[in-house]
Amino acid sequence: MNITWQEMSASLGNSHVSIRLQQILAQAPPPQVIDPTQPGQAFESGVDYLERLTAQIVAFLPSVLAALAILLVGLLIAAIASAIVRGILNRTDIDNRIAAGLTGHTDSTELPQVENVISSIVFWVIVLLTIVAVLQALNLQAVSQPLNTFLNQLIGFIPRLIGAAIILAIAWVVATIVKLIATRSLRVLRLDEQLNQQTNVDTPPNQNQLSLSDTIGNALYWFIFLLFLLPILNTLELNQALLPVQTLITQIISILPNILAAVLIAFTGWLLATVVRRIVTNLLASAGIDRLGTRFGLQQRTTGQSLSAIIGTIVYVLILIPVAIAALNALRIDAISVPAVAMLQQILNALPAIFTAVFVLIAAYFLGRFVGDLVTNILSSLGFDNIFSILGLPQTRVRRTTPPPVDVPRDYSTPPDAVAAATTSRTPSEIVGIVVLVGIMLFATVAAVDILNIPALTSLVSGIVVIFGRILAGLAVFAVGLFLANLAYNIITSSGDRQAQILGQIARIAIIALVSAMALQQIGVASNIVNLAFGLLLGAIAVATALAFGLGAREIAGEQVRELLASFKSKRNQPPRS
């Protein structure tokens, strides 16, 4: 029997549990040397061993029962304490306040279940103490010693934990007060409403949207927690986590003055730009510039903003650009400020050229409107509106739709198709005036693009102007050809004969074909193909005419040829004169 216990102890010697088992089995009596030649002695020795083992088990049984009782009572106490803690936290608002203080949220649906975490911690702490008591009741000091060491360390850590909790509570109080002051101050200044007015965002009242004041308050809230993180880690003596946090906080504090300076510059510039935009917009609106924009087709309903508001926005942007440059320079972060400042500086350098180009386009527009109206009036007085009848074309008028006046309120409950729009017609003189306006604007666009010094855009606009000129030249050639074709038709058909009608139509078609080829060649649409087609057409007409004349007048031509030959022969047979 003793050999069996020794073998079991030796087989478990290499495992982690073998150390504990060897300490327990060491209390067993030492083995006795048994003589195999005396079986009675072996039997008596076995009986003695069983008696001693039974006595040890009986002596150890109260300890086992006491350990089981301690375990059951400890588990019961842990469950009761956990339930009591959970119930107290559920009935009070302490858990929600703790969760709100840790997360910064006030909505109860977004808060974590702190009561479950706290009750679980209470339960497992009591269970751990119960396990230590059970091991001590069993006199298993070798097993309970690590747990005792752990509990001693945990109990020694409790003062540090309490100190860290006190610092955390102070941080929460300070962060909450700062957040409350910042949020209330920004709401008193109506910062959110000002931003909504600047961005023209209409948010429904019932929509849950995070405002800028709440965002700034939350940022300050967590920043204060970050500042208090250093003493908390120092109190907990977590030196490995303390060094990177200290480096981070040092860098943040060192760059904080630059950030505050940049924010102050940006806020001051934005406030100044907002005030200047309102002043400029109101002054221009009171001066009646919106009516001037309405005269030239710039209506608030079509563009979304009036002319005064557009000019005010331009002034607003012009003020914000140097403000942004100053704010980025104050930030002193080269990775961000250098490319951004370079981009804004290029925009500032290009502003004079942009304004000059815009001024050229505006002046060209007014000049084009004046010249277009002048040309329209002159052509109308000269009877140019009858040009279609002169060219032999049916009288046509280009229709345009005129929207209702701006001052008349519109009922948006009706569909857009139900709104009546007045229709007017454009005369040929007005069409020529529009063409003159477009031509002047194209030339002004070439000049404006040349001022901007954009070669690709300059070549593109120049090509468009050249194409526009070719189209106008082609239309002029075609119009002159139509006039000549109708004139030839009228002259030929003035006799009233049927043959004259046919010849007149042939002449008109021939002239129209000729001027069509000339117009297409002038426009530059496949000049080689047009020339080849026109040459083939004239050749076909000439061949057809020759064949028709040859086949139709064959007998007359033969008679004339015979007469010519007879006359030649008679002259040849006459004797020469002396």
Automatic annotation (TrEMBL):
Keywords: Membrane, Transmembrane, Transmembrane helix. NCBIfam families: msc. One of its GO terms (molecular function) is mechanosensitive monoatomic ion channel activity. Gene3D superfamilies: 1.10.287.1260. It comes from Dendronalium phyllosphericum CENA369. It comes from the Bacteria. The chain crosses the membrane at residues 57-85, 121-140, 161-182, 219-236, 248-273, 307-328, 348-368, 431-454, 460-485, 506-523, 529-552. InterPro entries: MSC_TM_helix, MscS_archaea/bacteria_type. This is Mechanosensitive ion channel. Coiled coil: none annotated.
